Amino acid sequence: MTQFYQHILALVFAVSQINENTQILPNLTLGFHIYDGHFSASWIYLASMELLSRRGRLILNYKCDIENTPVAVIGGPNAEFCFHMATVLDIYKMPQLIYGTFPVISSVFFHWMFPDVAHQHNGILQLLLHFRWLWIGLITPPNVNFEHIISMFSWKGICLDFIERFPKLTFSNEFSKMVEESFQTIITVMGSTANAVIVHGEVHSIMAMRMLLQFADIEDIPMHTEAKVWIMTAQMDFTSFPFQRGWDITFLHGALSFAIPSKNLPGFFLQMRNPTWEKEDGFIRVFWEEAFNCSFPSPSLEMKYKEFCTGEEKLETLPEMVFEMSMTAHSYSIYNAVYAMAHALHALHSSSFKERTTVNGEKWELLNLQSWKLHLFLRNASFNNGAEELSFDENGELASGFDIVNWVIFPNESFLRKKVGRLNLKVPLDKSLSLQDDAIVWPRRFNQVRPVSMCNENCDLGYSRTKKEGKPFCCYDCLPCPEGKISDKKGTNK
After folding, report:
1. CA gap 146, 63 in Å, rounded
2. What is the per-residue DSSP string for 222-279?
3. Measured CA distances, 353 to 36, 348, 374, 446 (Å)
């Protein structure tokens, strides 16, 4: 997936900047290894164990090459990834800088580049109350419990018409079951009268959304995606399989999403390598071929695409659905994770607790034995990433709020993520949300009128609510007030 290549670029860019800055780690050179989890638990376990083994040999606890000893791990973006990593790395007290959501377990060795998801749930609640969206739907990843969210919403008078799960992506003999589940999900979502739908997803969830809508299109299931306001969580990103390149994305027009604030860093894309430098970047050719739909000449391999790559293609010509030229929130979190780790190393080496040994007449820092000490310096650390000052709080979370982003889709299938608000975590909850309502572009079906998402319209004056049997409390009938009784307020049940 071409979008993930930007994550690699962010890592390389940060490491290069730090190695060129003599003020941060003057006597050390940072290096890195990249492991692909393939969205698979077994691959993540394998990668975690390889970190602790000699290069090329999977033998745990046998790692004598100091130069290739890791001092920290940057992990994400999915919560499941973090859980599997921690199972192995916690045993060795390895610092883990997480740029995804909180996993089902916590660890004293986690340092969060992403705010606690509870903050985001509170932000979604404030957003729903702001727009008076009291009748909503919820789409979630499989095997996730959201009872606490339902209780929180109910307490504030918000009802859920449905809770649907993303089908678990599979390419095995269970594919037909996944398709069947997808049909049921899309029928429920599109048949709902709720206009506001929360999509509580992970980084790859937009791929799943596109799959759902494509299945519906193939089966001629009636869809009114332009009638839904999708409210998407910050851990989601615009990712896609290569075969989804030509698929329609207008369903995202008017969507609102939470996002980790990010900065556009000068020189970031100037670091983009030319595909002829394959020795310096083992990912570049794969990315280039997928991004530009071309193949590099190779006598030993069949051409994947009809056109040959020249290596002179321009990133600026790629649509955003293939590659975004502005730094995404996930990339910025990875960039910040590298800087946090580098500044913690700087503090460790500047402290009076440095331990040294002599190897071949030279002094070496025993990083392989001291990585656990980084926790002390990462916790409550403040650092400058070259663009802004950042810090961790007492819980090991990067102290930041959320931007509220409005998705605008253009006829040529390019898109714009427009900031229309902010969730400030440093003020009381009821004052944390600020929005520019007039700047929001709504889905086209609403003709720029703020959407309504309620099970019932408010009862008129002289009418009162009466509960509908078998329906949530947000759904009611309006009956004339009994003789001798009056209602002088809309929506009252008295």
Report:
1. 42
2. ---GGG-EEEE-TT------GGGTTS--GGGTT-EEEE----PPTTTGGGPPPTT-GG
3. 35, 8, 12, 63
Query: What is the spatial distance between Cα 230 and Cα 308, in angstroms, rounded to a whole number?
Result: 39
Token couple for 492: 């009252």
Q: How far apart are CA 31 and CA 19, in angstroms?
A: 9
For each of the domains in the chain, give its residue range(s) and CATH number, in order of start. Answer: 2-115+263-274+311-391 (3.40.50.2300), 118-259+400-446 (3.40.50.2300), 459-494 (no CATH)
User: What's the mean per-residue pLDDT of the chain?
Assistant: 80
Nearest-angstrom CA–CA distance, 105 and 371: 22
pLDDT digits (tens, 9 = 90+) for 416-457: 999 999 999 888 888 899 999 999 999 988 888 999 999 988
253 close to 409: Cβ distance less than 8 angstroms: yes
Q: What pLDDT digit, counting tens, does each position of 163-221 carry?
A: 998 876 655 556 666 677 777 888 888 888 899 999 998 877 888 888 777 776 666 66
d(CA 433, CA 229): 18
Question: What values do phi and psi take at 421, rounded to 5?
Answer: -175, -175
Phi, psi of 222 (to 5 degrees): -55, 130
- Per the rule left: phi > 0, alpha: psi between -120 and 50, beta: everything else, 286 is alpha
Sorted by sequence, the CB contacts under 8 Å of residue 91 that are 6+ apart come out as none
